[in-house]
Amino acid sequence: MHILVVEDDKKISAFISAGLRQEGFVVDGADNGVDGFSRAMSESYDAAVIDIMLPRLNGLDLIQDLRREGNLTPVLILSARNSVDDRIRGLQAGGDDYLVKPFSFAELLARLQALVRRATSVAEPTTLSVADLTVDLLRRTVARGGEAIDLQPREFALLEYLVRNQGKVVSRTMIMDQVWGYDFDPSTNVVESRISRLRDKIDRGFDTSLIKTIRGAGYVLQERF
After folding, report:
1. SS3 for the chain, per residue?
2. pTM score, whole prediction
3. Topology of domain 127-221, per CATH?
4. Which CATH architecture fits 2-120?
5. Residue-wise pLDDT tens digits, 42-88
């Protein structure tokens, strides 16, 4: 799943982003309301975590601007304010849930998953598929030809990214940015290593190989080459 985190406190942003990536999510970030609005309008996200006290454009105005533009991305509001009135204002602005700082990551994760479940039950399918490969985004399970495949969280995130971009060539840099969330280091072979492990689980033993290497360009997941 693809999550947007709009938070100007670097420690909190890093804490949330690292935890979500560890759970297999793809995470983008912004440290002010203007950049948060731009990202939310230019990308498709399963949910957004938005702090209220943001520079340039505060969180409530950001959410209201998104709703006026027809953006229905589920929003979990973060705030140090705990009064009933503050919660009401957040929800009336267009937020879907409200979490008070300080918070546990486990609660944030549970609330995000609940938001996505409610949204995808109507708006989007909860599974992605290519040929006989099926990825269940809610249960976070994978099967091919009816056979369950056990993936680690990072492998699941990598496969989800490839399936969401099926038929498109994605570079090592794009994969590092979207799945690992840090700048590409040309000296590392982490992408090749994880692709190799994923191939062993997804393609080995099947007549058709889905994950293909495009020399000099990157990787593509598709049924036929």
Report:
1. CEEEEECCCHHHHHHHHHHHHHCCCEEEEECCHHHHHHHHHHCCCCEEEEECCCCCCCHHHHHHHHHHCCCCCCEEEEECCCCHHHHHHHHHCCCCEEEECCCCHHHHHHHHHHHHHHHHCCCCCCEEEECCEEEECCCCEEEECCEEECCCHHHHHHHHHHHHCCCCCECHHHHHHHHHCCCCCCCCCHHHHHHHHHHHHHCCCCCCCCEEEECCCEEEECCCC
2. 0.59
3. Arc Repressor Mutant, subunit A (1.10.10)
4. 3-Layer(aba) Sandwich (3.40)
5. 999 999 999 999 999 999 999 999 999 999 999 999 998 888 888 89
